[in-house]
Amino acid sequence: MAKKVALIFGVTGQDGSYLSEFLIKKKYIVHGVKRRSSSINTQRVDHIYQDPHESKKNFILHYGDMTDATSISKLISMIKPNEIYNLAAQSHVAVSFEIPEYTANADALGTLRILEAIKFHGLEKKSKFYQAGTSEMYGKVQSVPQNEKTNFYPLSPYGVAKLYAHWITINYRQAYGIFAANGILFNHESPRRGETFVTKKIVSALCKIKVGLQKKLFLGNISSKRDWGHAKDYVVAMWKILQQKKPDDFVIATGKQYSIKQFVNLVCKEIKLDITWKGKGLREKAFSKDGKILIECDNRYIRPLDVNTLLGNASKARKKLKWKPAHNINQLIKDMVSAEFKSIN
């Protein structure tokens, strides 16, 4: 029996690396697409690529770019994958306000380019397509918690671009019979999270403060609430979505919510760092035992429009996909803290 072939756009990211490991364990041949960069950008998948059992045989990397229709079309035509996972994006919400046009080009039109390539090369019955959606599409939330029927109201260029990608996926599913599915994934973190994302930033800074390598952590709106899961669990959901008989859209979330301040407190508890909060709003600060300011809010990290609360209802995924998260927030933080201390020691 021939092995299934998967093509992952965004293979060098957090989710792409975990998904690659997961699919290889399931005996897939995995093709990954990486962007050309003057600096090394494959750190998250180097361990797979350097494995003599997997490299060249089960894990193949290609150059490509979501803003380049020719490279996307050529790869899909050449590989003819059974499954395509679009995890590539300019995925930083705050940065999307700085580079909105590029965000739209990569995140919105990039998805269209993949779908159009599937149609153009006659792969509607061959290639299943997964689109990585985001809870940021809910933005100014219209109801709590959010599920597949909740109205969208994005509050960033990133959220708007992802909403186009979400609807163009549904459009091509209905118009051309492509197995095209959306995963609306709420925040998911791991030791492989990018340095500029708030959970990684918090864990990294507090671990360095603990060992004396950093003096202070600056944050934005610490009252923002998020539904945080572990990326390892969420890539399993992606795969399950493409194993269904019919394409559909699924919210993937833990159903539990914590503020950024609560996340900070949980990290401090894990690393045994005593802090005391004083003040309110942007003037709120966290002090050490000896009265030094360890954490304070900074206007530079306040977005033009802020999403105050996100909480997912994944009951449809639990029922239809038989999926539920294997990690809780304490296990996630333990995993991130352990990896951080290893990297700085």
What is the number of beta strands? 15
Structural class: alpha/beta
- Strand order, sheet with most strands: 3-2-1-4-5-6-11
How many helices? The count is 11
Task: Note the gap between the termini.
Answer: 47 Å
What proportion strand? 15-25%
How is the main sheet built? 7 strands, parallel
* Radius of gyration, whole Å: 20 Å
Coarse shape: globular
Ranges where pLDDT stays below 50 over 5 or more residues in a row are none
* Helix proportion range: 25-40%
Mean pLDDT: 95
Element order: H for helix, E for strand: EHEHEHEHHEHEEHEEEHEEHEEEHH
Keywords for this structure?
four-stranded mixed beta sheet; alpha/beta; 15 strands; 17% strand; 345 residues
Textual characterization of the structure:
The chain is an alpha/beta fold and 345 residues long. It has 11 helices and 15 strands. The strands form 4 sheets. The protein has a 7-stranded parallel sheet, sandwiched between helices. Strands 8-15-14-13 form a 4-stranded mixed sheet. A two-stranded parallel ribbon has the order 7-10. The mean pLDDT is 95.
